[in-house]
Amino acid sequence: MSTISIAKTKPIARPLALATRRMLLAYALVAPVVIWRLSTSVYPFLRTFYLSFFDHSPVRRTFDYIGFENYVAMTRDTNITASLTFTFFFVIVSVTLQIVLGLGIAELLNKRFRLRTLARTVNLLPWAIAPIVTGTAAVWAFNQDFGLINDIIWRISGERPLWLVHVTNARFAVTLTDAWKNTPFLAVIFLSGLQGIPSELYEAAKIDGSDGARSYWYITLPLLMPLIVSMSIFITIFRVLSFEIVYALTNGGPGSSTSLLSYVVYLQGFRVLNFGYASAVAMLLFFIVLVIGILGFGVLRRTWDRL
């Protein structure tokens, strides 16, 4: 009986051993990527969180534990208040423009016309340009005396606004530049969503007497809504973390009126070398991104449930 039982268990043990070896091989292959990812994301985050409780500055040669003093100091810092105000303005206006213009451009590129492929390619050019290059070019475009924007305005109204000197104008200049650069990417994403909608739905709506506006409102938008919400979350987070446009176009000026929170982190960390305070501002930035992600995920789930 023991011989028979041993003989029966051998065929079962071999597959289990083979499955274990395959599992160990899979973990071994994935381990380098996981370790590299942890070392480049989780560790810097934990280190930043740790430093936010210290007065750490290589210039002053300090590394003293101060608890929540960096966070308390942010509540009294007028630069943080101005940066928060502009960050919310920048994110809301830029994301809204990108969504609206992206949907409009996607509709145009979805139509049948000559040189449509060329138009789709040209549409992506602003997005393909590096943000630093875009910001540097925008400095010339918004120049008061010989900029392209002011030349057009002067021909229409006879005035030359001070774009990068006046606070409100500078904020709109940064926001419009960001929207111009990133809208083409959304247009391509929305174009792929439009091409995934069955044409039979539009044909049935046309038979029922629905015009183009009603078809767009009752067919296109509802079916695109999960894509619109998910991309809104994506670009909102990237707008909160945006840095290059401000750095190249205004350097946060005039004053700190166009300074985003990410730019404050750069100033405090790499120019002032106040690592502790920069880490605290970075944690505030992380909290804002976390809230946006949680709220956006909830809205996305509700959008899917409505379909």
Supply the key terms.
single chain, 307 residues, MetI-like fold, two-stranded antiparallel ribbon, 2 strands, globular, disordered N terminus
What does this 3D model show about the protein?
The chain is built from 13 helices and 2 strands, in the order αββαααααααααααα. Helix 3 (78-110) packs antiparallel against helix 10 and helix 6 (131-141) packs across helix 8. The longest helix has 50 residues, at 2-51. 78% of the residues lie in helices and 3% in strands. It is globular and about 75 Å long.
CATH superfamily name? Answer: MetI-like
Describe the biggest sheet?
2 strands, antiparallel
Low-confidence stretches: 1-10
How much helical structure, as a percent, in the residues? Answer: over 70%
Give the end-to-end Cα distance, rounded to a whole number of Å.
Answer: 62 Å
Count of DSSP-assigned helices: 13
Global outline:
globular
Kindly estimate the percentage of residues that lie in beta strands according to DSSP: under 5%
Q: How many discrete domains?
A: 1
What's the arrangement of secondary structure elements?
Layout: H1 2-51, E1 54-57, E2 62-65, H2 69-76, H3 78-110, H4 116-123, H5 125-128, H6 131-141, H7 148-157, H8 167-195, H9 199-207, H10 212-240, H11 244-249, H12 261-271, H13 275-306
Antiparallel strand pairs: 1-2
Helix pairs in contact: 1-13, 3-8, 3-10, 6-8, 8-10, 10-13, 12-13
